[in-house]
């Protein structure tokens, strides 16, 4: 009887090889084939077994050289050969990573799928920038949203619920639409003075950061965009970054938050 392969859906984290989990390293070492995204770093790929088949399926904005349906097929074809397949995805496969779509496709074909979580970009960016995702007196919740929809369809987000001064909003894949996102949030009442951090290639050697406010981030990113992938942090917590330039405003933000909490 022929051996049936399996697929490991592995979160490779935001890029820094030291942020891989032990489970990810173990799964990668067991792989006969590695199917990897554009954002997986060379240092992480170097951990694959010497004889493993390496298959690049990376996507860039508006440039999907390997469409998703073909990626699904490649994973199934390799597993049908009896191979153990490591599907390496930047960040976490279940946070804007389409990992669940790939798993559903494979399981309908009787292929075993196992997940390995990864550090998502928001957590990686927080760790290197000093911008926390939550902070007492500044942010009581955090929300991750996508700033891009398939086939460039219009954004369809609950802007009213997102425009909360007590929430840290992290926008993935939002570089092309950050101007619209900022405008929609301000229309629903979020202050234009709300601090914003744009961070590209977080945790990597080529990381770049830009600090601004909600009413200025759109024009600034249009004039001087950061390279993809860029993540946006929107909220009072951005003021905690040492280089943010918001140090003078921080005590006032904390005082207002305390007064609101005690009202």
Model description:
- This protein is of the alpha/beta class and 263 residues long.
- It folds into two domains: 6-116, 3-Layer(aba) Sandwich (Cobalt-precorrin-4 Transmethylase, domain 1); 121-262, Tetrapyrrole methylase, C-terminal domain (Methyltransferase, Cobalt-precorrin-4 Transmethylase, Domain 2, 2-Layer Sandwich).
- The chain is built from nine helices and ten strands.
- The strands form two sheets. It has a five-stranded parallel β-sheet, sandwiched between helices.
- Residues 258-263 have low confidence and may be disordered.
The secondary-structure element order is EHEHEHEHEHEHEHEEHEH
Task: Categorize the overall geometry.
Answer: elongated
Show unreliable segments: 258-263
Structural class: alpha/beta
Q: Looking at the chains present, what oligomeric state does this protein adopt? A: single chain
User: Strands of the biggest beta sheet: in what spatial order?
Assistant: 3-2-4-1-5
| Terminus-to-terminus distance | 71 Å
CATH superfamily of the largest domain: Tetrapyrrole methylase, C-terminal domain
Rounded to an integer, what's the Rg over CA atoms?
Answer: 20 Å
What can be said about the biggest beta sheet?
5 strands, parallel
Indicate the CATH topology of the largest domain: Methyltransferase, Cobalt-precorrin-4 Transmethylase, Domain 2
């Amino acid at each position: 009887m022929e051996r049936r392969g399996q697929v490991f859906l592995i979160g490779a984290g935001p890029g820094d090889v030291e942020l891989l989990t032990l489970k990810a390293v173990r799964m990668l070492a067991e792989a006969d084939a590695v199917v990897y995204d554009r954002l997986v770093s060379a240092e992480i790929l170097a951990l694959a077994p010497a004889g493993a088949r390496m298959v690049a399926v990376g996507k860039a904005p508006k440039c999907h050289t390997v469409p998703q349906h073909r990626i699904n097929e490649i994973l199934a074809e390799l597993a049908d050969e009896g191979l153990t397949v490591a599907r390496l995805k930047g960040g976490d496969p279940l946070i804007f990573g389409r990992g669940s779509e790939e798993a559903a496709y494979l399981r309908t074909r009787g292929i075993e799928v196992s997940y390995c979580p990864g550090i998502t970009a928001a957590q990686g960016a927080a760790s290197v920038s000093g911008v926390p995702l939550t902070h007492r007196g500044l942010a009581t919740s955090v929300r991750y949203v996508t700033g891009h929809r398939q086939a460039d369809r219009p954004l369809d987000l609950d802007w009213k619920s997102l425009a909360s001064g007590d929430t840290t909003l992290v926008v993935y894949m939002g570089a092309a639409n950050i101007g619209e996102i900022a405008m929609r949030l301000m229309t629903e009442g979020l202050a234009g003075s709300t601090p914003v951090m744009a961070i590209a290639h977080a945790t990597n050697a080529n990381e770049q950061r830009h600090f601004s406010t909600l009413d200025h981030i759109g024009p600034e990113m249009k004039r001087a965009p950061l390279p993809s992938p860029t993540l946006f942090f929107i909220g009072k917590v951005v003021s905690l970054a040492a280089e943010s330039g918001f140090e003078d405003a921080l005590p006032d933000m904390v005082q207002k938050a305390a007064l609101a909490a005690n009202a």
